[in-house]
Amino acid sequence: MAETKYETHQHDVLVIGAGGAGLRAAIEASAMGLSVGLICKSLLGKAHTVMAEGGVAAALGNVEPRDSWKVHFRDTMKGGRYLNQWRMAQLHAMEAPARVNELEEWGALFDRTKDGRILQRNFGGHKYPRLAHVGDRTGLEMIRTLQQHGVHTGMQVYMECTVTRLLGDGPSGAGASRRRGRVTGCFGYWRENGKFVVFEAKAVVLATGGIGRAFKINSNSWECTGDGQALAYLLGAELMDQEFMQFHPTGMVWPPSVRGTLITEGVRGEGGTLRNKDKKRIMFDYIHPLYASETADTEEEADRWLAESTSGVASTARRTPDLLPRDIVARAIHTEVKEGRGSPHGGVFLDIFSRRSAEDIKKKLPAMYHQFKELGDVDITKEPMEVGPTAHYTMGGIRVDPETQETCIDGLFAAGECAAGMHGANRLGGNSLSDLLVFGRIAGLHAGRYAKATAGKHVDPAQIEAFAREALEPFDRDEGVNPFAVHEDLMNVMQTYCGIMRNERDLKTCLKELDRLKEAAARTKVVGGNRHYNTGWHEVIDLRNMLIVSEAMARSALARKESRGGHARDDFAEMDPAFAKVNHVCRAAGGGMELEAAPLPEVPDEIKKVLLEEDR
Amino acid sequence: MAHEREGAGSSATKATLKIWRADAEVAGSGELVAYEVETYPGMVVLDAIHAVQAKQAPDLAVRWNCKAGRCGSCSAEINGKPKLLCMTRMSTFAPAEPIVVTPMKTWPLIKDLVTDVSHNYRVAKKIPPFAPRPRDADGRWRMQQEDIDRIQEFRKCIECFLCQDVCHVLRDHHETEEFVGPRFLIHLATLDMHPLDTVDRRPMIKDEFGIGYCNITRCCTEVCPEHIVLTDNGIIPLKERVADDFYDPLRWIARKLFPPKHKKRLPVLPDAEPARPLGVPAPANRAETVDAEE
Amino acid sequence: MADKVVRLPVVDGLGNTLRKDNWWVGPLVTFSVLSGFVVYATLRAFEGAHYAWGPYLSPLASPYFETRDLGVPLLTPAILILPFPGLFRFTCYYYRKAYYRAFALTPPACAVGGRAQGHYNGERKLLVFQNLHRYALYFALLFLVFLWHDFAKSLSWEGELGLGVGSLVIFLNCAFLTLYTTSCHSFRHLVGGSVDSYSTAPLGALRFRLWSAVSRLNVDHMAFAWISLAGVVLCDVYIRSVATGAIQDVRLL
């Protein structure tokens, strides 16, 4: 075979993924005067961050002065069922306000309070109104702000470029040593023409987002195929907490075309209530013991809380159960539907029209209004929405050092949804956008420091040859299966056997099915001849990544014999204290995947004190 | 004349799509190809294209991301009108009529429905970024909702570039080097009206960015999927602001008599990148072309 | 050449489009109605008579200046007046859209090929005066005063308060013209659109309220443009008709 042709680019820091975390990391590294490359699979500014709606959680204390990082930290740990890396949750809560204020310096325009500061709204699991927001398009505002600031910092943006492999100079995959060699760059191709490209870099930051596309009903874009997790895993890094998949309680359920499309929690933050087909508010029946002391148990109290907390009065009432954390609400809806109290198309009703004026709804939730009007023929100012759970976010991801976001591979960092640890077993709404900013910056900072302290690295031409061959394989097969069909199959398998309610039998079936799909994926064939913007070919590579992460998810889920946060099993319906002490870690070993139950780091006493404190 | 391959069979639940198939690197390619798909409730054109991709043409190139009208990736022209594929319901078309889906005309074609929109990213880099005044004493900024309502409308922009596609200055007259286009005029309006900003971009809005090319025919407003009223709320107020500084004789005299505190003037930022970073020759839109409609 | 480049579904050229709807209806209607108005106004301008009857004065010749004694050939009271409202409408941000589409064909409709030109200049060269729309507005505001004064006079029948159908027609005309003028984009800019920060600018609260009010009217600027144009014609036709004796004015009060 002839020597592979490719172009080469060199950078100090290379960021893969240009959503919120990637952009923030690239901005930080650029600000250090380093040469930064930013690679994205789509066009710049289209990353899944644009879909974030409700807001960014930060204890600014603009609406509720009692709020502080400690309360935010407590809420986050509680929401994550204490499986979070405490240090990440602490850093996150402490730094989020500065990160949000910084966005304003770069041109972001959040909605305002009466005295001209950033307005904050209520959200699930947050004790106080905490989410800085722009109507229901906060993610768009954030990514556009970062994008517009970022492109002027000198970074080089590589759009529509798919990375198929990370390059490294360590013994990958084998050995039990903690450090597993160094990352030297990455290998990929331009989607436009299929030509290969090699990036040499001293440090690499992965910020590739989630794995929602592995599920039939999901709120994610095509890009969310677990690329970063798979790339890191293939180079020898570890995946952690993969069993925790967040099913957002409110996705659209009808018409079929938009099944799974997200409806912001902001609807409930603005007063929306969940009701079953008998028009009964369902959430009062599903108040988790963990939240019983702080949740209203009558409609009167819930409504009083809403009225007071949104008008800036320090409310004495307790929070409405409609704003319990997402895992609880999603399972409540699942139960209502399963027990026959659902809406006509298999969801429940979300009612905002009887709670707020049409004008308020259009002002505070304009995107929701248009989404339902244009895609669902529903006028949400006049009728309820039908909603049901949709695969939304993976709490798990690449295992990183809480302080620096570095993986167990030298020079390889990860931030945002593709990294694990911050959210534990369940993420609170609004914490993902602050996660992106806080850990994007930390990853960029430490990647920059690492790059400054590191001499140039060289990529191994033999690796490149091998990866080029691997990428082109699907073209060379005389016959094979359609990659789109395998993907469809995978989505059904994960939805059925590894979905919102799991059990041992299903998970074992899931693993068996995944084996079958891996085999099928190895036989996929690209039709259509050339490499120019060949979507079938792109699908083959995404498929490999999704299968790796799906397997880690199923294995971790099988090992966790309890229900906690985003992982629920009907054969182990309760939380088990034994599992409260471990994270599940997956890594490549001996040609397969090995799973380890890694103990959680000890929480220092002063942090324990913060966790136990109550507000006055 | 375009060549058409015909699909076979038809029934009440089926629709025919005619999709432009072309590959910029395959000489002389470019034709409308007919595909038949089964329809279902709520189906949008993007669903139909995905169905074609999954079963009939796996190499069909189309950009998309969110499929909820938020990211602005799936811009194309449907029956000649610039639209988002994900927000156009199949039920809005007569079932018997084939639906013609073509790429955006204004940009160089890459493949099928995918065009090279990199020009827009180059323009974005030329605009001097937001530069706020110093923070208030407590380290924050005060802005009232009424100060920002107006520009929050422009910040809804999802950068689908449909306004750029439909704008005749770019579409018919190809003034891409002289005129930034509606998307960037409303971005400039956002910056000019921002309560905190300290940069005076009006000279470049007039000269390098060519606001005078806009003849306010409002096609940008007509096609905006976010329902931003680009022309009346953004471009016209910006024209008025430029007129304040450059065309109004009374204002000119007033300025001479009472010099105002000026925002600081900055030059347009250099265009650092080559037109096509990948070194692929752009297929010229004005060169050899072909009439497609039957 | 042909094998070097990709073929495109639609090419440059007037009227080229893949649109299947009747996109040409809009510009055709605009073309016809505007042309009709121009023809009518021109004929009336040169007619030089029947501008007034009783207490009524046609908006085409208001304010009224007698031109007969000036000795300028072809000059009529209407010719003296019409350039001002004419300029206001010609430079209007709505009418510009209408005639750039319907007359200049740049472009005739959205996503329809426009008229080819050597080099398209937009409003940069010949049409740069469009930027002075605000001065046309100042005159238009002044004319509103005259026109409302005409309405007041139409209620005065030889010193006594009265009301004819003509008074109502004049009232409607004044009302429509007021809506059209105060919904103008330049007016919106003038009353508050130029402010960046209402909460800190001098008189910011007032200017915000004014700007908001004009903004609400501005949404319907197009409608007001057409209605007021029809109003002017209606008013003039009515007054001419009573002046020529074709119809009789009806006294209501």
Structural write-up:
The complex is a heterotrimer of chains A (616), B (294) and C (253). With 616 residues, chain A is of the alpha+beta class. Chain A has 16 helices and 18 strands. Among the domains of chain A are: 248-389, Flavocytochrome C3, Chain A, domain 1 (Alpha-Beta Complex), CATH 3.90.700.10; 477-574, Methane Monooxygenase Hydroxylase, Chain G, domain 1 (Up-down Bundle), CATH 1.20.58.100. Helix content of chain A is 35%, strand content 16%. The model of chain A is unreliable at 172-177 (pLDDT under 50). Chain B is 30% helix and 13% strand. Chain B is built from ten helices and nine strands. Chain B has helices at residues 45-55, 118-126, 145-154, 162-166, 168-171, 182-193, 202-206, 219-223, 230-246, 249-257; strands at residues 14-21, 31-38, 75-78, 81-84, 99-102, 109-111, 114-115, 199-200, 264-265. Residues 1-11 and 274-294 of chain B have low confidence and may be disordered. By secondary structure, chain C is mostly helical. Chain C is built from nine helices and four strands, in the order αββααααββαααα. In chain C, strands 1-2 form a two-stranded antiparallel sheet. In chain C, α3 packs across α5 (133-154) and α6 runs antiparallel to α9. Chains A and B meet through α3, α4, α10, α13 and α15 of A and α1, α2 and α3 of B.
